Amino acid sequence: MCAVIVRRDTYAEAGATAEIAMELQTGTVLKESNADLKLPMASTTKIMTAIIIAEDCNLDEVITVPDAAVGVEGSSIYLKKDEEISVKDLLYGLMLRSGNDAATALAIHHSGSIEKFVEVMNERAEKMGAKNTHFKNPSGLPDNEHYTTARDLCGIARYAMKNQTFKEVVSTRNYKGDFRSYANKNKMLYNYEGANGVKTGYTVKAGRCLVTSAERDGMDVVCVVLNCPDMYERSGYILNDCFNGYKLVKIDENDVFMSDKVLCKPQKLSYFVVKKQDNLDFRINSVKNLKKICAGDLVAELQIFGQNGLLFSENLYSIVDRNN
Fold first, then answer.
1. How far is Cα 47 from Cα 157, in angstroms, rounded to an integer?
2. Distance CA 4, CA 114 (A)
3. CA–CA dist 132, 39 (Å, integer)
4. Residues 300-317: tens digit of each pLDDT
5. Is position 176 annotated as part of the catalytic site?
6. How far apart are CA 215 and CA 313, in angstroms?
7. pTM above threshold 0.85
8. Residue 187 phi/psi, 5° resolution?
9. Is 98 among the catalytic positions?
10. Known catalytic residue: 43?
């Protein structure tokens, strides 16, 4: 697979009206510009629609297409009245072909009406911390009250990409279902090394929008560009900068450290992001005056420093008993 060829021309340097890139696990912001500007987001809206369906619905259920989902404005998978189709095939049609009719059918299946589904979308957005986002429909059709920010949309996409069903859908290039088959029209999956999702979008009002997730060397970066004339090239440029400049460091719950001759380890898996050129300084600060130690006791704090100071800290717990 070949990486996107990135030219440092006007589009690549000028970028989008708003853009951001975050590391997926930690949410660390690696690059941003106008990330809190409220903007329309076109069909990248469907990320929220899809994660709700993936979390709440039985994908194997076969439903009958409602009248309201036939002949919906915009991009379509051409659903027919009273057609039978699985929720799974609708979900793939939503994300691979950007079917607005699929969005309508799924919304009605989930909530009984578009209006009630939109209420769920806004409730989930708030729970995800997307405070500057408001949905009016499940597809991304233009509406003055339908908007997000690059930061909010990136947070929604990060949340969604941690769901294995959602990730499987948006990383699929070609899908063959029981009722429908689709080819994914997201060019990043074909042209950018490590790309594994998520969604394109376009309306005249929103311009070209793209949310991309890509993984290299164990680090996954989610990138959002809104109103970007050359969305694929700009996204590749941002992702290349992130992968060239940063790496993800993992502190495993089974990593063993030594504190005052006591073997100890953290209680959970943790991650942090560091610039590739940073030299890391590991320090272990022991808890004072522990005369008797039992396995599981807090005995120290692990601190990791980079060039600009403290990057990470975590408590360490004894894995042995010791009597002083």
1. 7
2. 38
3. 10
4. 999 999 888 898 999 999
5. no
6. 25
7. yes
8. -65, -20
9. yes
10. yes
